[in-house]
Amino acid sequence: MTVAVVLAYLALVLVVGVTSQRWLKGTGEDYFLASRSIGPFLLLMSLFGTHMTAFSLLGASGESYRTGVGVFSLMASSSALVVPAVFLGVGVRLWEVGKRHGFVTQIQFFRQRWGSDALALVLFVALVALLVPYLLIGVLGGGVTLEEISGGALPRWLGSLLVAGVVTVYVSTGGLRGTAWANTFQTLVFMTLGAAAFVWIVRDLGGLGTALRAVDPSLLVHGERIPAARLLSYTLIPLSVGMFPHIFMHWLTARSRETFRLPAVAYPLCIAIVWVPSVLLGVLGSVSIPGLAGPAANGVLVRMIDAHAPELLGGLLAAGVCAAIMSSLDSQVLSLATLFTHDVAGRHRGSAVGDDARRVRLGRAFVVGILALVFGLSLVAETSIFRLGIWSFTGFAALFPLPVAALYWRRSTAAGALASVVVAALLWALFFVVAGDDPGYSVAGTGLLPVAVILPASALTLVVVSLVTRPPAAERVERFFS
Amino acid sequence: MGRRAGVGLTVAWVVLYLAHNDFWNWRTLSWVGPLPAGLAWHVGLCLAASAVFWLFTRSRRSSGSGRLAAPPGEERG
To answer: Predicted ipTM?
Structure first.
């Protein structure tokens, strides 16, 4: 029954995504940016659904199971404060510049802002390298979910294949319009069903107060697990939203500047609606289903549903988890396809892909190819979804000085931006190697996350190198600041 | 948006950011309704953040600074 409900849901998502194809105009701008026509509600659902991943639901409940409810302060409330500020401070300005100059990708913006092909190439490599692990989170999460709810009848590889397959079909056929529609539908599904599941499970456990009092008290406080320095440095992680290619792509789809208002105001509320149940079910799982270790803890949410909800609701909720996963995976894949078709193939094959129809065909082929690659990687990857996410977010957050300098600092130079990316990449690699498999790694045991070092170093490099190199041409600067 | 409103809302955001580092809440377990106090504090921060962003976007609209001039349409990417 549960598996049947999930399969029916996947079929429904396919219908929603593919139906949007009827509104496709056949142009590149329509396929990749939905003709910049998305309104406030669709933008909110797209941005929120895209930002909430398997990391938010499975990773958060898994991490809460291991370290307690303090995970809410690490990722949820810090995102509620920082992400809308980035929407308003960076997103709106990028939208204006993107509309004025006809940009489709971040790479196009940075290339023209600073006039450097070398910077564009390095940035392309960095963005792709950081986005692939993020894609892996989604495909792995889909596999874990379907394996758990089916009691092993659907092996992890088959679950990952189903999720990747459905996303491949509706993204490749519907483009960004299909992705936005499917995202909206799926975001509503996972928010509604998540809340319903939470209420049901808590009632089954005798009420929230009663259930929480059975939990180990050390899981209900930060204690020694989350030192103050760690909490402080986690507030830097949500800056990653300013450099996510898929968020950039959704910003550009906005109909007008006013469209950003609803997403900025409603985002903190949406965060609370999704994360509070997820985190609480994680700690309650430590009582109901003790003994989960390592990546197995990421399955605690699904196991709780399985143990405490009726089979039909269990199936619907598992579908909700799949919804959260796919609503991120789709935008990430499409953003990679957009980067590839506009910044690699479009530039190096010249007129061969110059026309829209060819570019759309190439984009569709890329979507299929990249999801096949990520599915292959998911077969051999065995890691905590939370850790995978944190390293990916750290890399994107370290690049945040770039959009800020590009939008607000006239004196910033291509050399400064390039040096900043190189320093961020080197430090990221260094910390990744030094941290190894230690899930609680902090810089020299201070409690600080690597991002607290990499981000300031990247920003400082950008400032210093910009100041010691020749100022950018006034004509170029005026094109962006006039 | 008036300068005073802008400064006020920026200060409000900074206060929320500082309040996020609530190390005083997390040493001993206490309760706010059915929730642990530390968690309840951070849920409250989410609600307060939404209110601050609402005031911010509302003040921009009332001052007219939220309107976008017609794009000149120069140089396609």
So the answer is: 0.87
